[in-house]
Structure formats: structure tokens, C-alpha cells
Amino acid sequence: MRENDMLEKDEIFSKVLRAGRRTYFFDVRATKADDYYITITESKKFTEEDGSFHFKKHKIYLYKEDFTAFSEILNEMTEYVLQHKGQEVISERHQKDFKREFAQETTDEKPTVDRSFTDINFDDI
Fold this sequence. Notes:
By secondary structure, this protein is of the alpha+beta class. It is built from 2 helices and 4 strands. The protein has a 4-stranded antiparallel beta sheet with strand order 1-2-3-4. The longest helix has 19 residues, at 67-85. It is flat, with a radius of gyration of 23 Å. The N and C termini lie far apart (60 Å).
């Protein structure tokens, strides 16, 4: 059997989740005995100072006998985080381009406007 034929047989079903610099690959694969298991791969992009980049990958193999316990613990952990920290993604605050939207407070203070930005319409050029 050719190598390409083996790769096609090995990968049964796939989904991709892009999440900023991280990408998650969920793959159903087949063993030599034609049983199925899941791989979850995290791929994270790193950019060097010279503009070049590389990816670091981490892979988890999940077998059928562990599906129930894995799913239960994952659900328990995600519920715990959401109950204790809510839906807001705090780490976004640390990104360079994060702009916090403030709700209008009960005070009469007007929000300050940054006048150093000029909006250019490319149709005018």
C-alpha cells in the first residue's frame, strides 16, 4: 500500500478551530486494527524578530476507553471556570490592540476623544 493511501485511511474525520495565534486540530484516526481514536493537536505560531516564524505543536491521543471520563472532567472544568470567572476573556486586555469599551457611568464626565487619529477614505486619494 502506498504511503498516501495509508494517510487517507488513517484520517477519518477532521475539524479545525482557529483561535488567534493558536489552531486546534481535532482528528478521528484509525488504528492498524481499524478501531478509531481521536487526536487533538494545538499548533501555536511564534514570530521571530527577523519576521520569520515557526509553529510549536502539542498532541493528545484520546482512546475510546477514556472518552467518558475525559468528557466528564472537561465539562466539569469548563463549568467551574465559567461559574467562577464568567464568559469575559480577561487575557484579551493584554493584547496590544485591545480597546476597552467603557459603559457610560452615572457621572456627567464625558469620555475623552483621541484626536491624534485621522480617518482616511481611500476613495479620496
